[in-house]
Amino acid sequence: MDVEPDRLIASVLRIAPPEPPCRPIHLTAACSKVSSGRYKVTRSKNKPLTYEQANPPHYLFVRKGFNSFNTSNLKDGVRPSESAMEDMFIRKFISGTWHNMFLSEVIIKRQLNMIRISGIVVRNILPRKMYFLIGYTEEMLTNWLQCPVKLELQTTDSREDVVFKYI
Amino acid sequence: MLSLCFLPARAAVPSARLVCVRAASGQPAAGRTDDPQFRPLDIGRRREVVQQARERRRATLPPPRHERQPVNQQWGDVWPAPRTFHPDAVPLPLRQGFVKRPNAQAPPGKHANAELMKIANFLHLTPPVIERQCRALAKFCTPWPEGLTDERLDELRPLEVITQDFLHASPTLRHPDARVVSLKVPLSCLDLTETDRDKLLRLVGDRHDPKTDVITLTADRCPLRRQNRDYALYLLTVLYFESCKREPWEAELRTVADAEKFVWAGSASEAAVAPLGAAADVVNSYGEAVTRLHNEGEDESTLAEYRKAVVALLGLPEHVGAN
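^ Those are the sequences you sent over. The predicted structure of the assembly is below.
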């Protein structure tokens, strides 16, 4: 036969034909570029960045603080995965409840059996509505996470207050 | 009629959008402002209206707390518990943040600064507050007794109970490893005979440290620390009293071949030497030499001692067998 038996079988069985064994090498320099947590500079230099966005992730614990504080990752700490999943849930819930109102990242601190959530919120709704949102958030999260949840927010007038630089 | 159709639509009917733009800019539409029937259509939030509303809201807000609070207030009452940093309550002019050119740009201030909110602050534990708490606790404290040194404590309280507490924050209050209780007891403080001690060491196994002569009992089978502590004390009591008891089958178990150390009294060696009829002290020294040889092994000093004892026992001249 003019066709290799492997390829013939592969075509009959309708599976991908086996690749010939080879070990490729880089013929040019490998571009191992990290692009996480970095923002592209705009032409008109009008993109606002907060302090947290302006410092890429390798500045954590150098120029930036952590957003989440718990004892799970100490030696002999308990429930690290549950804490991480709860943190993700809390952030999703907050971003969905407070529509476009959080100007900073959600900061989650676990102390004793309490969860203390803080962040910077813009004052674009009535105070009465804000009180409702705070109560709603605390109540729902307390019920879901089965521990006291306290919200300690800081409010500010305008969105320019959190801008650190423009790129 | 036909001629009207060819007129451009724009000239015939001005669009609503054009009217609205003219009204927002503040200039009167041509011939429209005084007309009560045709008010200008205003769609959307006009910028001045929004800004005026914001100014009004800002004006009605009271000044921040740090401008209103009296200077002689008790800070411990203002910040009684751990709380996220709030710039309006804390009167300090703080700045937090890294700037590449500090001469050109000041570090970010305390308002709307997420970094200041992230870090743990100890504003609830200022020195006056700590002093107040210490003064409140002082009435429950008495000075340490002078004669109670470490050695005296070891005599009076030889039992050591070791527990671990963990830095722990979770919905459940109990850390699973915090229930483990260890008990350390030096054997010297227990009233034991040789056989009692031997039995206890067999029961305890490798929980006994031969260097320090301390038994360590670890209890973790109960869910609570108190229960584990009680169980460990119970275990110690049972161990002690069991090692003092003698079961009838124990005597049958132990034969001379099982003994860890050679004991002269009642041994075959003693029975063999008795017919020789030597003096008691010679027999005793021979007994000691044999005991040392068995228990400590063969080396220069034990063999020399054995040779001397045998020579004395058999009444041979002293140089026999000497190197």
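Helices of chain A lie at 5-13, 51-54, 80-97, 127-145. The radius of gyration of chain A is 25 Å.

Shout if you want it in another format.
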